[in-house]
Amino acid sequence: LSDRFFPYTAIQTDAVLSLDEHTSLSTSEVDFAFVVWRSFPERIVGFPTRSHFWDAEQRRWGYTSKWTNELSIVLTAAAFYHRYYHSLFTEYLPAGLRELVDGLAACEDILMNVLVAAVTKLPPIKVTQRKQHKETVPQQVKGTAGAAGSRRFTQRQDCLNQLADWFGYMPLVSSQLRLDPVLFKDQVSVLRKKYPRLEKP
Fold this sequence. Notes:
- By secondary structure, the protein is α/β, with parallel strands linked by helices.
- 37% of the residues lie in helices and 15% in strands.
- The protein is built from five helices and eight strands, in the order βαβββββαααβαβ.
- It starts with 14 loop residues before the first strand and ends in a 22-residue tail after the last strand.
């Protein structure tokens, strides 16, 4: 899994757009995210976000995907970042840490966020994404899908705590910043807006 962050010589641009196979973005979304990244090239800039928190009762770090104002992780399922982080990920991080991530699965994007935060001491940046239609899970597969999702969530929480142990502290930085295009959701004709497709259902 960590091979996705290998510094391949074919990557000639400073900006890397990382996408998962199930990601669906409009050209307006990609364009706006790239404009934002050019202003903050040292940060991860993207769409789906997660956050971490200290669970005093469990005495460990918690990981949540709930929609709140707080964020500390931008998933690399849809994000821009500088190609320099590929070199750091591959050459700076200990091999044992990458092996840990590969063994846990669904953890490499958390490690990338932890790495960038450790280097910059800054949070990632969330940008506007138009609301996506969510498919409902058929009743007959809902139990299976729920079990798989729960297992993946547990793995990601375990990953977060093992990374904090490895670094000796929690590098992730929380933020409430989200950047939207000018006139986003304003009562102005969508035809006059630079990123009109962001507001289409």
